[in-house]
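This section describes the prediction task in plain terms. A model, or a person checking by hand, is given the sequence of a single protein chain and must write out its three-dimensional structure as a string of tokens. No templates, partner chains or ligands are provided. The sample shown here is typical of the held-out split.
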Amino acid sequence: MSYGNNDFVPIIIGTNLNAYNIARSLHEAYGVRSLALGRYPSRETADSQILEVRARTDFGDPDVVVQVLDTVATEFPGRKLLLLPTIEFYTNIVLERRAQLDPRYVIPLVDHDLAKRLMNKTDFYRTCDELGVPHPATVVVGPGPVDRALGDDLPFPYPVILKPSNTDVYPRLSFAGKQKVYVVPDQTALREIAARIFAAGYDDDLIVQEYLAGDESVMLVANSYSDRHGSMRFASAGQVALTEYDPNLVGNNNAIISVRDDELVESLQRFLDGVGYVGFANFDVMSDERTGTRKLLEVNLRPGATAYYTMAGGGNLVRCAVEDLVYERPLPLEVTTAERLWLNVPYPVVLRYAPRGLLRRIRAAARAGRVHTLKYRPDSSRRRRIDIARVDARHTRDYLRFARRRPH
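The expected answer:
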């Protein structure tokens, strides 16, 4: 089977929803077939005619990842190989081993030093401060014995958010009561949780942050692309319409309305151009109900798993990397403005579980146009349709199951 075209071959690291998002975006733009590498096959990418998956269980070993990429590179002499990691783990491997990969691959990622600065939340919020980009009010707690007065004099009220600054070290730790992010009710709980985290071996900063209250209606996402000269050339904002209910998947989104948001786009450009960013960026954003200000929470150095909402809004995010790095063409500034509905679950699930206050907007966006990443007419064999039906059934069961456990 052939991959790519005469000019380039897309090599995707990961076999998840994001892998299909990227492969579909490239197929729509160039009619190309992609190659995906990962640990396990998944239903999201199974039986596809636009994407082939090569899986091996030891692909979690960075040495194996680089070895496989070296071998794959020999299959495609004379063509540019566009390397596209889909999750943070693979992104980190590519950043760490970039010197080995650069001679053979075109990589739409920031350099290693800037990546470290942005992935560390202490440095990320400091950078936002320096550039005048809105973000939640933050207090940094250094590692070591917990001060008995910690939390007694915060510049914002309880409850507060507590989370690790270092998202590379923290996920590797294991201890009772571990959470990705903590909503902390008072000073006593803040001190207890901080002490437990440090006792588990975490040795970097903790972030204490103002709690921005609200349901999906205050949650936004944004995806962008900055060209090889460090200039933002694509931006797309999205209003979250439905989040994941499974506690193990908290933070993932299953429905997004692509929207026009000039304030948010201006903040993104100030941030990205201010640091000389290159490549894809995916932002989590919240709107402060008190002021309406859009505040950046964090940045991921790759397209978001839900980034296909940008296609619903009228813009092909992934195409930017090909035009910029493969064909080296100048990119005009593109900002999506159409209000459409992106789905990762059946539409009736969205109507049933999305916040009531968003339903009118959801229905209006759906009438204008709705898309489901996995439902792609040129890739709709009988086996593929069965795979997608099973994915949708699994998501539906999860909402039925976990909705009962959520507080009302």
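For orientation: The longest strand covers residues 232-243.
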